[in-house]
Write a structure and sequence with these properties.
It is a single chain. The chain is mostly helical. It has one domain. The chain contains four helices and no strands. The longest helix has 25 residues. It starts with a helix and ends in an 11-residue tail after the last helix.
């Protein structure tokens, strides 16, 4: 999913007045967290290149986001949750955040199954 696709989908579901710059920043911060919490804790499979995330820009909303299909709905739920949170609509936030967490956990489970966790250095007594 591209940045613009996530923003357009969230804006369709939750019309709002937040500027694109804020939504791009929310998506950038989410991808940084997902990379740190899920991807960076695993080895890359053979043939995979290391993932680097450069800061997202409102001028380049065609850029692909980190999480692939079929888990890319994570971005829509995340944006909807942020919109509700900052509009002080906490019931909506809780619902969207629960959906976000469900998809995030599904993505984490899938990534865990397909990638070897990074080993810890052995410590001998």
């Amino acid at each position: 999913m591209r940045i613009i696709d996530a923003i357009n989908e969230a804006d369709t579901l939750k019309p709002n007045d937040f500027p694109v710059e804020i939504k791009v920043l929310w998506l950038y911060r989410l991808d940084l967290r997902l990379k740190q919490d899920i991807i960076d804790t695993h080895e890359y499979n053979e043939g995979e290149e290391e993932i680097t995330i450069t800061e997202y820009s409102p001028d380049n909303t065609e850029q692909e986001l980190l999480v692939p299909e079929p888990y890319s709905e994570i971005y829509t739920h995340w944006l909807c949750a942020q919109i509700d949170y900052y509009n002080l609509e906490y019931d909506g936030f809780n619902a969207c955040n629960a959906m976000f967490e469900s998809v995030r956990q599904s993505y984490r489970n899938s990534y865990n199954q397909s990638h070897m966790p990074k080993g810890k250095d052995k410590f001998y007594f």
